C-alpha cells in the first residue's frame, strides 16, 4: 500500500490479517505518496504534487529507479503492460512504463458530460474503475472510449455509526 501523509509517506507491504507492516520504503519528507501499480517485478509509485515518481523492486521494496511527470499524481493502475494515471481531472493518461511517456489520454465522460475528480484507479476485468473524489461513487470506465459504463455506489458499505468515524 501507498500512504499519503504530509512528511510521513511510504510504500509498504502489510499483513492483510493482522495489519502489521512487514516492510516499507519511506519517501523524502517533502513528498506526499499516492497511487501505486505493479508491472512484472516493478512497483511504481506516484507523488501528489512533486511530479516525481519512484520505481521499486516489487518483492523487496528497494528503490531501483525514478521518473518525472507533469501535473499532479492521484491514482495509478496497470493492465499488466501499461500504466494508467489519474490527476484529479477528467482525463486518464495511458503511460508506457519504459521511459514513463504518455501514449494517449482517455477523456472520461457519461452522456457527453466529463467526469472530474477521478482519483484512485483499479483495473477490473478489462475496465478502469475510478473513485470520484469526495463522493460515494466509483465509475466503471471503458478504457478504449472513456465512456462510463456503470456506477458503483459504496455509500452504504459502512453503517451510519462506522461512517461517522471516517474523515472526508
Q: Would you summarize the structure shown here?
A:
With 168 residues, this protein is mainly beta. 2% of the residues lie in helices and 52% in strands. The chain has one helix and 17 strands.
Kindly describe this structure:
The chain has 168 residues and is mostly beta strands. 2% of the residues lie in helices and 52% in strands. The chain has one helix and 17 strands. It has one helix at 160-163, and strands at residues 2-3, 10-14, 21-26, 33-39, 42-47, 52-57, 63-68, 75-78, 83-86, 91-96, 101-107, 109-110, 113-114, 118-124, 127-132, 137-141, 148-153. A four-stranded antiparallel β-sheet has the order 4-5-6-7, with no helix packed on it. Strands 8-9-10-11 form a four-stranded antiparallel β-sheet, with no helix packed on it. A four-stranded antiparallel β-sheet has the order 14-15-16-17, with no helix packed on it. Strand 8 (75-78) and strand 9 form a beta hairpin. The longest helix has 4 residues, at 160-163. The chain starts with a strand and ends in a 5-residue tail after the last helix.
Keywords for this entry:
mainly beta
| Low confidence ranges | none
The amount of helix comes to under 10%
Secondary-structure element order, as H and E? EEEEEEEEEEEEEEEEEH
What's the end-to-end separation, in Å?
Answer: 20 Å
Shape: globular
Number of E-state strands: 17
Our Rg estimate from Cα atoms comes to: 16 Å
Amino acid at each position: 500500500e501507498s500512504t499519503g501523509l504530509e512528511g510521513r509517506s511510504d510504500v509498504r507491504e502489510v499483513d492483510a490479517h493482522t495489519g502489521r507492516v512487514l516492510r516499507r520504503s519511506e519517501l523524502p519528507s517533502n513528498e506526499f505518496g499516492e497511487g501505486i501499480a505493479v508491472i512484472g517485478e516493478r512497483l511504481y509509485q506516484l507523488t501528489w504534487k512533486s511530479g516525481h515518481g519512484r520505481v521499486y523492486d516489487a518483492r523487496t521494496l528497494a528503490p531501483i529507479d525514478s521518473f518525472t511527470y507533469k501535473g499532479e499524481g492521484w491514482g495509478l493502475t496497470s493492465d499488466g503492460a501499461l500504466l494508467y494515471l489519474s490527476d484529479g481531472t477528467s482525463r486518464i493518461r495511458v503511460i508506457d512504463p519504459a521511459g514513463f511517456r504518455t501514449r494517449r489520454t482517455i477523456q472520461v465522460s457519461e452522456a457527453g458530460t466529463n467526469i472530474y475528480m477521478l482519483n484512485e484507479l483499479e483495473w477490473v476485468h478489462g475496465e478502469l474503475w475510478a473513485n470520484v473524489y469526495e463522493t460515494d461513487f466509483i465509475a466503471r470506465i471503458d478504457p478504449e472510449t472513456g465512456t462510463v459504463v456503470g456506477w458503483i455506489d459504496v455509500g452504504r458499505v459502512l453503517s451510519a455509526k462506522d461512517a461517522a468515524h471516517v474523515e472526508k
